[in-house]
Amino acid sequence: MIVLEPRPQPSRALALLSPVIAIVLTLIAGGILIALMGRPPLEALRIYFFQPFEEFWMWLTLPTGEREMWLYTPSEVIVKAIPLALIGSGLAVCFRANVWNIGAAGQYTMGAIISGWVALSAPEGASGIWLVPYLIAGVLGGMLWAAIPALLRVRFNANEILVSLMLTYVAALLLDWLVRGPFKDPLGFGFPESKEFQPGFIMPVLVDGTRLHLGVALAVIAAVALWVMMGRTMKGFEVRVIGAAPRAGAFAGFSRDRTIWFVMLLSGGLAGLAGAVEISATVQQLQPQINAEYGFVAIIVAFLGRLNPIGALFGAVILAVSYIGGENAQIMLKLPKAVTGIFQGMLLFFLLGCDTLIRFRIRLARPRVG
Amino acid sequence: MAGQTTSETRPETPLFEARGIVKKFGEFAANQDVGLVIQPGEKHALLGENGAGKSTLVKMMYGVMQPTSGKFFWNGTETVVHKPAEARDMGIGMVFQHFSVFDALTVVENIALALAPEPMRALSQRIEQVSESYGLAIDPRRAVHTLSVGEKQRVEIIRCLLQNPKLLIMDEPTSVLTPQETEVLFETLEKLAAEGCSILYISHKLEEVKALCDAATILRHGHVVAHCDPKAETARSMAEMMVGNEIAWVEKAASTTPGPVRLRVSHLNLPAASEFGVTLKDLSLEVCGGEVVGIAGVAGEGQSELMEALTGEMLATRAETIHIDDVPMGRANPTQRRIAGAAFVPEERNGHAAVGELTLSENIILSHHTAEGIANRSWIDFGKAADWAKRVREAFDVRSGSDNPIAGSLSGGNLQKFVVGREILREPGVLVVSQPTWGVDAGAASVIRRALIDLAGRGTAVLVISQDLEEIFSICDKIAVIHHGQLSKEHPAAEMTAEKVGLLMGGAHPEASEIPVEEIA
């Protein structure tokens, strides 16, 4: 029989290094997988995980005039990382409170729907100032969708994991219906999609020749603000105490219900914002496929960042690299797209495994013969 | 029974023997070369403070865990006990300190779970026979959640007896019993021993061991420090063997005239939060400045509900039910009550009074954030928190490996000194403390008791909720007893005896019991 028993003194250094160990293990296991598929493993891993960094290094070191072409892949990594970071930093705070919002994908979709509705109903020739109500609508949409599991949890003790997860499908189907019905572009040849957004609703691009947009500032500001909140303010302290020991929270006079509301609305609002930012910057219209799976991948981001909002920034970059690397590997090695999903799944698996084995050790309880 | 001595010739092989038992958890040795010999029909005490290694030893005897090294002998044959089922088959029965009964089932259903299948009716009859012959009155058809704690223990004992044990292990059986219930239990145990069943009685209550047992093994820090005959020792001499040095007995200060009422509870009613919780019924109580009032009672009679009503974790229906310094506070949250001058130390130090994962200075913030201005608007002043933590550690001699460790790394006694000290240094007007020395070593206990008495001496109203009668008698000026969510009138400690408190703990009708106490006074 295998028994997990707590280690008397779990190593703090290992606990911090756990994401690094998990990444290394993912690379090894991924290499074996690719070798089994009959492709050169080292080459594939280089394309998957190192090429964006190599190209970024080229851009840093080459002189002006030669280096511009090398910025494209790194900038695409950042573009992918923006929604992951926005959602992941919010989830990091939420998970810290021991509240498990698994439905960020639904809140992301709802943010896209409500902000898209603003964009589609604005008058012709709307200026860039419309981005402000547009983004706020995205936040409200995400909060609205997160409010449902929060309310059911607080009032009826309904499990927020199930409720938020199920609402993801409701949101996806709602979007599907909208782009085939009320939001459908009359001139769209029957395709299930809305009109394209007016220029006033497109996130401004920061660097010419790339798609790097203003969302990166939003993601960094959000992560830093949440980090300060968690480390320095009473609100963050409340979240940490309620998450670690709810009775101690009650003893301190903190309301558990208020904390559940707070972290659900916060993480939902950020997921909604990510949805609004993403369709504005890359999709630029409403359609059934708006990359809502970012909401699930951001769970890995939050754990990879050690449930620290700043850490989530780094986690977002790593997961974004796996996306871009996956696209490159499809093109260059004809590897199936599903390999990206397998890598992301392995990463979470190894990460949770490392975290567990750092705190516990495995003992084989030998059946001794008397 | 006092005339019966243990001098008759002992059989050649003991029923049970442990030789050189070592149990290590990592570097820490919970048992170090422990030896134990139990004769047939012997009532053997295993004595030691909390953390001395008693529970570890019996868990190994019962097959719950395995020793790192050392051997057990059963009737002279070397034996390895892999799991509790094997222990039961050999004839070892155990009654745990925390009962493993299912509240929603009946007595007979609970017992059936532990035995080989047999018809319920036949089992009910066997239960009735055993309960009659050992004076363990119980109705097999009753649902367990309607039973008192003492009755639940009877269910556990009957469950063991139906398996015809040769050795019955009792782990701290009286911690949940009133003195009267304890006497009934002792009669049962005497009867069992007379029939040849050995008893291993684990306790730190010396008077009980003297009254019941005819041999004792004393553990300290995992080592056997003595084998003795408890009837030949005094409680004090055994205590010294247990603790290892002279015990500092806390002396009450000569009682001063109490000040004004600082904590007043009037007609507090609070419905139970869950099906198995306790409903508080019409509780009234006054604590004056300068006074230590104790609330005695066996476990689970409404103490935790009362504590939560006082801290504000559960709100009363009317503000007037709780007054702190004459301000109605029944509807105020814990922070508002602290600002009004109250301070609280709940029973559970890890997870309620403190968060194990947080550092000591962060744990200061829990109760001090607003009342002591550590939260400046919404920003935390960590410097101020660290300052408080340092002051608490110095004033209460809180020992730790590093400067600002996480609370979970402290030993029980040190963490308890920290959470008590944290509140006392605020110099509160009212201090409510539950189980102030539960599970802490004798040294820490006397520091904490001394500090509570000194705090009252400076004009604070101190309310102590405790299941430890010895503690109540050693520090309190007045004593009330909680039973089934009702509180008896408070009586001056000088007029109370253990017997009177015991009657109230067992639920003797308050009106009926008040008269004799006052007549005597």
The name CATH uses for the topology of chain A is: ABC transporter involved in vitamin B12 uptake, BtuC
Query: Structural class per helix/strand content of chain A?
Result: mainly alpha
**Fraction of residues in β-strands of chain A:** under 5%
In helices, the fraction of residues of chain B equals 25-40%
Please, what is the oligomeric state? heterodimer
Sum up the overall morphology of chain A in one term. Answer: globular
State the CATH architecture of the largest domain in chain B.
3-Layer(aba) Sandwich
Give a brief description.
Chain A has helices spanning 12-36, 41-61, 72-96, 104-121, 131-156, 160-180, 215-232, 234-244, 246-251, 256-283, 294-304, 309-333, 338-359; strands at 2-6, 360-364.
Description:
The complex is a heterodimer of chains A (370) and B (521). Helix content of chain A is 69%, strand content 3%. By secondary structure, chain A is mostly helical. Chain A has a single domain, classed as ABC transporter involved in vitamin B12 uptake, BtuC (Orthogonal Bundle), CATH 1.10.3470. In chain A, strands 1-2 form a two-stranded antiparallel ribbon. Chain A is globular, with a radius of gyration of 22 Å. Chain A starts with a strand and ends in a 6-residue tail after the last strand. The model of chain A has no long low-confidence stretch (mean pLDDT 92). Chain B has 521 residues and is of the alpha/beta class. Chain B folds into two domains: 16-91 and 165-243, 3-Layer(aba) Sandwich (Rossmann fold), CATH 3.40.50.300; 261-520, P-loop containing nucleotide triphosphate hydrolases (Rossmann fold), CATH 3.40.50.300. In chain B, 34% of the residues lie in helices and 23% in strands. In chain B, helix 14 (442-457) links the parallel strand 19 and strand 20 (461-465). Chain B starts with 15 loop residues before the first strand and ends with a helix. Classes of the chains: A mainly alpha (370), B alpha/beta (521). The interface between A and B is medium-sized, with 21 and 37 residues.
